[in-house]
Design a protein that fits this description.
Elements: E1 16-20, E2 26-30, E3 38-42, E4 47-52, E5 61-64, E6 70-74, E7 80-84, E8 90-94, E9 103-106, E10 112-116, E11 122-126, E12 132-136, E13 145-148, E14 154-158, E15 163-167, H1 171-187
Antiparallel strand pairs: 1-2, 2-3, 3-4, 5-6, 6-7, 7-8, 9-10, 10-11, 11-12, 13-14, 14-15
């Protein structure tokens, strides 16, 4: 066996790996392939720290925020649910997709999340407010994977046959536009 490999067995009773935090400390695991519940396991501490429930279906995968504090599911649920990984508390339920969630990516600053769906939409959400900041349906774009650039300025959209980049408006700019729109609606 390669000396660089350190065996770290998955705890007993868990059968399905759903995702891991960027630093490898937290794992999202399920106890069977059909269960809509997911356990967050702290690899360093060697214990379960929370249970994520409330999903309608068994998720295909779980995506952690860069610091590991938040986690979201991808799969057949049309809702984007965001949990606090340490407590299992749902912090946001984001709605808008007409089909399940194919991919999700947290921004590197942890302030937003982008999701894609087989319905053709890509949605960008503000995590402080839980509001959808922008959504679009690019023609001919089937987004299999999403990824923010490290500076959060670009969203990389990976499709089956092509890759696209989208310049992401800053959250401050979007908040200002939403505030202007909201104040205009109040005065109309």
């Amino acid at each position: 066996m390669d000396d660089r490999l350190e065996p770290r067995p998955i705890p007993e009773g868990f059968t399905t790996f759903k995702g891991a935090s960027d630093d490898g400390r937290y794992l999202a695991l399920s106890k069977n392939a059909e269960s809509p519940e997911v356990w967050i396991y702290d690899f360093d501490a060697g214990k379960e720290i929370s249970v994520l429930s409330g999903m309608d279906h068994n998720p295909r995968g779980m995506v952690f925020s860069p610091d590991g504090s938040l986690v979201t599911s991808i799969g057949w649920d049309k809702r984007v649910q965001v949990w606090e990984s340490q407590t299992g508390t749902i912090s946001h339920v984001l709605t808008g997709h007409k089909q399940g969630v194919a991919s999700a990516a947290f921004s590197y600053d942890g302030k937003s999340i982008c999701t894609s769906s087989p319905d053709g939409t890509i949605r960008l959400w503000h995590l402080d407010t839980g509001r959808e900041m922008v959504h679009f349906t690019p023609e001919g774009v089937g987004a299999d994977k999403l990824r923010f650039s490290r500076d959060n300025q670009l969203l990389l959209i990976f499709g089956r046959e092509q890759t696209w980049t989208l310049r992401v408006p800053s959250l401050r700019t979007i908040d200002e536009e939403l505030s202007k729109k909201h104040s205009t609606e109040k005065t109309s």
